[in-house]
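TL;DR need structure tokens for one chain.
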Amino acid sequence: MVVRYIAVFGAKALRRGVLLSLVLIAPHLAGCSAEIRPRSFMQFMDDSIAREGTLARCNQDREATAGDAECINARRAASTLAARADEELREQREANSDVLRAAVRDREGYAQAAARRAEAAAQVTADAEFEAQWRVAQENVQATQLGYAEPSAATLDFIELPPSASVALPYVQLPASARRLELVPEPMLGEISLPAGIEYRDNANPTTGAAGSGS
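>> reply
TL;DR here they are.
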């Protein structure tokens, strides 16, 4: 009786233990089955470490891993990222090329503008020189036609002052003791009296002297 009870109780306990074990192991089995599933393309796009590790494993034997889902997803993700990098690099190069072309156009524009300014300045200088030469030539032609080469010097005109502008000399009263100085004119040649012994001879009329001496 006791042996039978033990056998029945042991069988029930065994079944309970097996069921309990299955209940406890079921989550772990589900997790293992989830981990066994191959990682997707998007997982490899987001996880660079998983992508590089899977590629390293798959590249060891490409023929054996040609049908591996993870290898396919990892290689696809790597190709997509490489294509994106190439596109970004191409756009960056095009942007740099546009900047360089714009800089070249600006530099050429500045050079052309400077050349135009220099040409305009040279033209202005040439026109001024031609105008000066033409003016000098015209002046020379006019001077030749008028009969002189240089303009006559400027002369000062006589300016007559009005009577009110004349300077009046002040009247000076001489003292009573002052003597008035009178100037006696010197005698002319005809008024000079000759001594009696000197004969006067007129060269214009020689006979006059002879007549005078006879008388």
